[in-house]
Amino acid sequence: MKIIQSSNAKAIFMENVPKFYSSESFRLLKDLLKNDFPYWTEKQIESFEFGSIARRNRKYVCAFKEQEMFYSFEFPKAPNGRRKKLKDFLDPKNVVHQWKSVEKWIESFQSRDAWKERNLDKTFVTEQAQELNCIPKRYRSHCASNSYVLNKEKTHWRFLSENEIRKILHVPEWFSFSEHIPEWRRYEMLGQSVDVRVVSAIANQLAVAFVKTANSAKNIVEKVRDSVINPVSINEKGQLELVI
């Protein structure tokens, strides 16, 4: 709350799992900010609908100081376009990966009672896959909720590389991690991050709201300025009048 207030921001943009917004933490944060940001709007968006091959069902919230900006904003609509496949995001053929046995993974899976009812439709995927499970914080673990790349013979699997996950989440090429961050931590940070397609689409709509509000304020200023520049007029009787 202190960080947001000190920023002098006109709008707040938040992302989190849907359950967070029914938590006491969010209720308290919203209550503390309601005097500065009285206008709130939210929408639950699945990144798959915005062109990502990895699912990431999240809720996005925007809050505004000004009513006019609130009314000028609207959440983006899902675009229409060609659905990409996993092969469009994979590393070049010359990159060496560590492959593991599918048979051993299945043996481990079947030995755990808690896993027996889990659906494996998106656990092992080929290069032609157009849909993956959500890439989680603990992606480097062995879990049915993860999606792994199969080899052509479908006998071995591997994790997605850091570079592949970055491309799947549409992380900008200019972004880089500090050299002091270990690999496991980078995977966690990517798993905890957002799909940039959705963030970019919402940010563009926020920019539109800012421009609309600024243009509206500019028009008001120009009307006032014009009335000040020409404050005197002559009436039909030839008398000078002060325009108020």
Can you walk me through this structure?
The protein has 244 residues and is an alpha+beta fold. It is 33% helix and 16% strand. It has 7 helices and 9 strands, in the order αβαββαβαβββαααββ. It has helices at 2-7, 24-33, 67-72, 102-110, 162-168, 183-191, 196-229, and strands at 11-16, 39-46, 57-64, 100-101, 124-125, 148-150, 156-158, 232-234, 240-242. The strands form 3 sheets. The protein has a 4-stranded mixed β-sheet. The chain has a 3-stranded antiparallel β-sheet with strand order 1-3-2. A hairpin with a 5-residue loop joins β8 and β9. The two termini are 44 Å apart. The model has no long low-confidence stretch (mean pLDDT 88).
Summarize the structure.
33% of the residues lie in helices and 16% in strands. The protein is of the alpha+beta class. The chain is elongated.
Provide tags for this entry:
single chain; four-stranded mixed beta sheet; elongated
Q: What would you call the shape?
A: elongated
- Structural class of the secondary structure composition? alpha+beta
Distance between the termini: 44 Å
Q: Numbering strands along the chain, what is their spatial order in the largest sheet?
A: 4-7-6-5
Rg calculated over all Cα atoms: 26 Å
Helix content: 25-40%
Extract low-pLDDT stretches: none
Number of helices: 7
Q: Sketch the topology as an H/E string, one letter per element.
A: HEHEEHEHEEEHHHEE
> Quick one: how many beta strands?
9
Report mean pLDDT, rounded to a whole number. Answer: 88
> How does the major sheet shape up?
4 strands, mixed
Q: What percentage of the residues does DSSP assign to strands (E)? A: 15-25%
